[in-house]
Each structure stands twice: as structure tokens, then as C-alpha cells.
Amino acid sequence: MPSSTKKALVIGAGFAGLSVATFLAKKGWMVTVIEKHNIPGGRARKFEAQGFTFDMGPSWYWMPDVFERYFASFGKKVADFYELKRLDPSYRVYFDKTHWDMPANYTALGNLLESVEPGASKALDQFMEEAKYKYDIGVGKLVHQPGISIKEFIDFDLIKGVFKLDVFQSMKKHIARFFKHPYIQTLMEFPVLFLGALPQNTPALYSLMNYADIKGGTWYPALGMYSIVQAMYDTAVAQGVQFQFNEEALKIEVVNGVATSCLTKSTITGEQKYYAFEVVVGAGDYHHIETKLLTSKYQSYSAQYWNTRTMAPSSLLYYVGLNKKLKGVTHHSLFFDTNFEVHGKEIYSTPSWPTQPLFYASVPSVTDPTVAPEGGENLFLLIPVAAGLEGDTEAIREKYFKELISRLEQKWGQSIADSIVYKKSYAISDFINDYHSFKGNAYGLANTLLQTAILKPSCKSKKVNNLFYTGQLTVPGPGVPPSLISGEVVAGLIDKNYINLQSTNV
Prior knowledge:
Oligomer: single chain
Number of helices: 17
CATH topology of the domain at 7-46 and 226-308 and 445-505: FAD/NAD(P)-binding domain
Helix content: 25-40%
CATH class of the domain at 7-46 and 226-308 and 445-505: Alpha Beta
Largest sheet: 7 strands, mixed
Structural class: alpha/beta
CATH superfamily of the domain at 7-46 and 226-308 and 445-505: FAD/NAD(P)-binding domain
Low-confidence stretches: none
Radius of gyration: 22 Å
Number of strands: 19
């Protein structure tokens, strides 16, 4: 429990905000977190309707080692908070004329690949050996660097293995070295979609995600993804972190390059108040905090800079409740039954609403009956769409919903439309309204080569000495595990720099 007078303010109670707050508190800081919503979680909030419980955002649990590391930092383990179940199959992939169930067992996966491409099982072994190296270096070293200076990466092991890391080769070319069958290539390219970029624009370094997928496994926390949020919130409270919900940040006051206080407004009463601090951490949308909470004098990046960033996609989401059980469906399903190249261009090259979208379907009630009423089914549907699209109307949401339900009925061989008892959509305008999300993005910045490590927006303000940032628009990047790591990295940087901060603030 903190006993000093070192005060830190964290703006936003998403995964990164919870993480940085908890690590700062452990280091002796008095931490207050302000959050505009009535519960923690940010994009990982949940809501309940008609007996259904819906996770609003993240639905995949990968890299369990990162979660264990986080809780171990506070003398706990994952099992102290929630039960994990490894999914088998990990997920199902629908192609144009068939589908594959991805087995959790590695040998079974090798046999599956071998059945369509002779030699693919041996190629998988070689591919995974390289992927493991990248995972060990990437997750063990690279992602724990704050990205402040190139000097962080002058490390013998990193230099020695720079070519093995494949930083300058694309994922697409890297995968093509090992596999020729288009289905296998699609399968291996899929994890980088979590990083928000096309395989041809993503460094092959990120085959570490294939290791996370195939070796680390796909898991499900009992009662849903919000179990993670609740566990992190409970951990933060136990460390002495104070939370102020329904309170939105309006302005960060800066005097001579030092942030002194933050003006907030109650989303319920409209009451305004000031919070004083030694350090402030932006754990909300980086662009919003820069452009709306700071005067232009203290903004580190220009409008041109932001407008030339390659954003990860936004999402068109549907939360659907059924009054019947579905037959033969899996927890996670990926629909690659239309042209990936076309949809990819509609996200990145010529941003537009997709003509024949790829999409993802999650049915958590297959694994966890608590998220739906007895005899019902809980569906989460997601279409990746370009960030910044205009025309997010009810009409276009309804158009795509009907298309998705029709394709699901066809692929799953059973009726769905006549069993829908609840439906809610969520898209670009909602991401903007709820999270001040830049261009309505869902995943942050794309992990392209020119937006990696020190080339991301800095986690330390260039203009305000005691302002820091954490989350998916800074290091190490998008996703739940990186957000947990981001909070830890930034807390360490703050504590390391505290003597300098203190001398500046005198």
C-alpha cells in the first residue's frame, strides 16, 4: 500500500490503465484513476440484456504467460481470480468450400496440414522453431522496452539475432517460404489480423503470434473476458488505487512544460473538479488526449502526423441473443469464405464499406452456459472495416447484419433469424462516442515496420515533462496482452525518471 505523497493520475480504466495504476501503486505512488464510464474495462466492458451477458470487445485469450506474469507481480496467480479452459478445437476456419477445425494438439495440427500439402508437417516444425525464437525475444525483451531511444535495442542478443527476427521481411513472404497451399497460408496469416495490418505490410517478426496461437493455445476465462477486468480491478484496489467513475477528463493544465492538474467533469451531475498530481498518465485515446486535453503548444504531434498514420481497422459488431441452442458450432469461427485480398484493400488501400466481408463469429455460450439464458445462445459477430469511414448508419448496419445471418445459416445448416430475441450493433460512431477513438479505430495503430517500437507515438510526452501515455496507440501495440505490458513498462519508466521529474517540478 502506498505511504508516500507521490501522486499519479491515470486517465482511463481499460487494461493499460488498470495495469499502469497497479504497478505505480506497488512502487509507492498514490494513484487515482478517472474513468468516464460507470465500470472499469474500457473496450473490454460488458453489458447484460434479457438474461444474456455480452463481452463488448476482446473475445480471444492468447498468451496466458503474460497474464500470469502480471498477477505474479502482485503475489497472485490467474487461478486466484478465474478458471481458464483451453479450447479444443482452438477455432474453426471456413474457406470457400470446406472448413477446418484447428486442433489444440500440435501433432494433430501437423497431420491436418500434411493431409493437404505433403511435407507441411516438417515445414511447420521449422516455422514454429523460428516463431519460438521471435516469441522469446519479442515478448521476453522487445515489448518491455519503452521505445524512447534506439539505444534500448543495442543489445548483443538482439543484434546477433536481427536476421532471425525477420524485421525487414513481410509475413506474407515469410509464410510463403514454408507453405504453398492457399488454405495453410491463410491460416498462418490470420493471427496478424489482430495486429491490424495486411500480411504483406507486417514484419515477419510477428510470426511470434503464430507461436502464441499454436503453442500457447486459445483459452476462455470462466464467466467471460470481463473476468480479467474484474481481477485486475480487484488487484488495483488491493494495492490502494482509488477509482473515480463517471468522470471525464476535460483539460490538462500545463505550466512551463509541467502538467499540474487535470480538470474533469461528472458525466452524471456535470460537476467539475481539479486533480493535482506529480505525474499524469494518458490511458485513454492518445490522439484525443493530445489534441483535446492539451493546448497546441504542448502537443507532441501535428495533425499531419496523425492523418498519415496507418490505423488498424475499426469493427462493425453485433451482439445477438437466440432463444434456442445451435447444433455443431464452435466457440470461435473465422469466415474466410470470400476474397481476403479484396476485403484487405477495402480496409487499407481504398477505404470503403466491404463488398463481401470476411467476418468472425464467437458463440461463448458453447463453452460457458452462464452467458445466456437456459436453452439460449450468445453470439458475437465482427466485421473488420476501415477506420474513418463515413456513413455509419442504421441502414448499413442492418444490411450487413442480414448478410451475416444469411451466411451463418448457410454455413451452419440451420435457421437463426427466426430465433433472434435480442440484437445490438456497435460500430465506428460508437467507438468515437464511447472512447474518443481516433477515426473510430478498434485496435489502435497498425503494426507496420514504420510504426514499430521507437517509431510509434512515444509513451513519454516530448513537450510535457511529467505526462506519459500507455495503451494501444503507443508501445508495444494493440491487443490485450500488449496493453498489460504497456502499463508495466510505463510505470517502470515513470518510477525510473521520478528524481528528474521531482527536480523539474520544484
